[in-house]
Amino acid sequence: MPVDVIMPQMGESVVEGTILKWLVHEGDRVEKEQPIVEISTDKIDTEVPSPVSGIVRKILYSEGKTLPVQAIIAEIEAVEQKEAVSVPGEKSGVVKKVEKAEAVREIEKVEEAEKRYSPLVRKLAKEYNVNLEEIKGTGEGGRVTKKDIMDYVASKPSVLITSSVEAEKKIFEKEILIPLSPKRKITAERMVQSKRTAAHVTTVFEVDMTKVARYRELNKDSMKKEGMHLTYLPFITLATARALKEYPILNASWTDEGIVQKNYINMGIAVSLEDGLIVPVIKDADKKDLLQLSREIQDIALRARTKKLKSEDVQGGTFTITNYGLNGSLFGTPVIVLPQVAILGVGAVVKRPVVIEDAIAIRSMVYLSLSFDHRVMDGANADTFLRKIKEILEGWEVSVHEKKVSSPPTGYGGVW
Question: Is 25 a catalytic residue?
Answer without folding.
Answer: no
